[in-house]
Each structure stands twice: as structure tokens, then as C-alpha cells.
Amino acid sequence: MSEDKKRDKKSDEARRRFGRFWSTFAIVVIICCLVWKIILWNCRSPDEQLAAIEASLAIPESENAGVTYRKLAEDYLPLPTDPPVVNKQILSLTREEPWDSNDYPKLAAWLDERQDLISKLLGISRMKKCRLPIPLDRQKMSHFTNPVRQMHGWTSLLIRSGNMDTGEGRIDAAIEKYACILRMGSHLCQQPVSSYYNNGIVTESLALQCLEKLITQTELSDKQLAAIEAAMLPPRNKWKQDSKIMVKVQRLLQNNQRRRFRIIDWRRYWEYWKVINKSDDYSLNAAHRSHLNTLANRRRMYVLIALQHYKNKTGNWPQSLDRIKPPPSKETLINPHNNTPFVYELTGENFTLSSRRKD
Is 47 helix (H, G, I), strand (E, B) or coil? Predict the structure, then answer.
């Protein structure tokens, strides 16, 4: 009996050794495959790696707002940020406040001539997804066909048109145009390129400023508030997720431009190398700062919408944010600059919602 037990023990030990061997072998094979994959990836040129990233992010053309933006950029001449039909004082006022076409008929006529472009931008804004090509060589990108560059003019066009609608009492039309700017910013923020992302959050910030004035200066219905909320990005902070791929793409673009520049003019490579390294950090840091500013404004907008819903229901502003039912999420009430809550203070029939941050 003891002999049988010894044989069984030896047999079990042999099976365990065999199992450990194959487990170790499998782990080694997996590690080797991963290392080989990394080596193969790094051996590819920056162009090939960027092409692989683009392929992994590709979406069907029928769902891609970027395709329509590019066609729009080809079909229409670039718009100036400030139309040359009125003076600078009027341009500043009509961009920042509601206005009436009777006061500035030349600017109103200029906007009216571009109603077709406005209608097409409103149509594109109904698309949720957007993918634009990664700019492999910025020097070859034409201002006339680059939708990101043209979006500055489109944004100003929509802001002034929306402000005119507000001034003339067409609130629903104004909300539609401000929401279009929000979605345009959202489309740019879907890109893995830091400069595009930065343009996107700046664009969103401009729309949020217009909407904040609209909410605080006009009594909006629950339906109108819901339309604004539907166009906004969520209040969560996605910087780590978004910046991860932006850093990778930025490094590849840098390597690509260095390689090309060395071939074209090696004598000035050192100066170019210093500039391109500085601009990389600056671009990402600027995008992060703008992201935090816009995220704070976005969360503030969600709180303002909740406050207006409360007033529509009760006829008064709440004594505190705790009175709002259902309450905004805890994340929405936090200022992302310093992770402290927004401060709501009611004074008579008015309130303040401060966004305190560390200097």
C-alpha cells in the first residue's frame, strides 16, 4: 500500500512539474510575442504608425461629420472672424451681446447672405461622431480646405447670428445655433491631435459663454433647457483618457517632422529641434489648461440649468443647492481646478455661483 502511495506521489509531482513547465513556457511565449510586437511597432516609420492609429479610430463615412466639414471647407471660402461691414466696436458688441438687425442692417444683411452655410452647419451638428485626418504635413495643408482653420469663422458667424436671434426674441433659433457651436467643439475634441482638441474646447467655451448669458438674462422653458443640456458634453473629466493618445500622436508628428526637416535642411535642424520640443509641451499644457477652464464652465452650466428648472417649478431660486431635486451629480458640483465645490449664494431675488480656484 505504501508503495502505491509513493508511486502516486511521484506521479502527482511529475504532473505538477509538467504543468509548471507548460505554464512557464506559455508565459514566456506571450512575453516574447508582446516584445516582438512592440519591436515591430517601433520599427515602423512615424507615417506608418500614424496611419495605423487612424485606421484604429476610423468610422463609416456616413456617420462621420468630418467628411461633411471637409466638403464644406472646399465649397465655401474662409470667413473672416470679424466681417468687414461694420466697425470694431459694433463687431465686439454683436459678438458679446444680443442685438437687433434694425440697429445694424449691414451686418444683418451679411449674415442673411450666409444662411445656406448656417443651415449646413446646423445639419452637420446633428451628427455625433467626427474623425478628421491627422495632419502629417502642416505646410501642405491649405487654409481654404482645412475645416479646423475655417471653424473660427464659422463659430463667429453662428455666435453673431444667434445673438441677433436672441435680440429679436427667436430664442429657439438662438439655442439651436449655440448648440451647433457646442457640437462643433465636441467634434474637434474627438480628435487625437492636441491642436485640434485645444480648438475644440475653446470653441465649446465660446458657446458656453453665450448660453450662460442667455440662461441668466432670459426665462427659458424646461424644453429649451433640455435642448441645451442635450447638446452638452458630460461633466466628467476625461483628460487622462484623451491626453494619452494625444501624447502618442504628438510624439509621432514630432519625429516625422524632424526626419523630414533633417533631409530638407540639416544645417538648421538644431534650431528647429528646440522649437518643436518646446511647442510640444506648450501645446499639451495649453490644451490641459483650456480643458480645465472649459470643464469648470461646463459643470457650472449644468448647475445653472438645474437652478432654472427649480425656478420654473417653484417660482423662486432655491435657498441652497441641496434643495434641487433631483440633485446634480456630486461630480458636477466640483470645480476641477482645485476639487472644491462651487459656492452658491442667494441674495434677495438674485444669486451668485462662484467658481473659486487656486491661483
Answer: helix
Asked if residue 6 belongs to a domain, the reply is no
Q: pLDDT per residue over 126-149, tens digit each?
A: 999 999 998 876 545 555 568 898
**Inter-residue contact 151 to 184 (CB < 8 Å):** yes
pLDDT of residue 276: 47
Residue 6 host element (H or E): helix 2-43
| Domain enclosing residue 347, as ranges | 65-233+241-354
pLDDT at site 68:
95
Residues 344/352, Cβ–Cβ less than 8 Å: yes
Whether 287 has a pLDDT exceeding 70, the answer reads: yes
pLDDT at 247 over 60: yes
Residue 217 main-chain phi, psi, to 5 deg? -110, -10
Q: Does position 5 have pLDDT exceeding 70, yes or no?
A: no
**Is there a domain that residue 41 lies in?**
no
Dump the DSSP string for 49-86.
Answer: HHHHHHHHH---GGGBHHHHHHHHHHHSPPPPSS-TTS
178 within domain boundaries: yes
Residue 24, in any domain of the structure: no
pLDDT band at 171 (very low <50, low <70, confident <90, very high): very high
CA 84 to each of CA 61, 73, 87, 91, 129: distance values in angstroms, whole numbers, following the listed order: 36, 20, 8, 9, 34
- Distance from C-alpha of 189 to C-alpha of 199, rounded to nearest angstrom: 8
Angle at 163 between CA 160 and CA 168, to 5 degrees: 125
User: Phi/psi at 204 (nearest 5 deg)?
Assistant: -60, -40
- Counted domains in the chain: 1
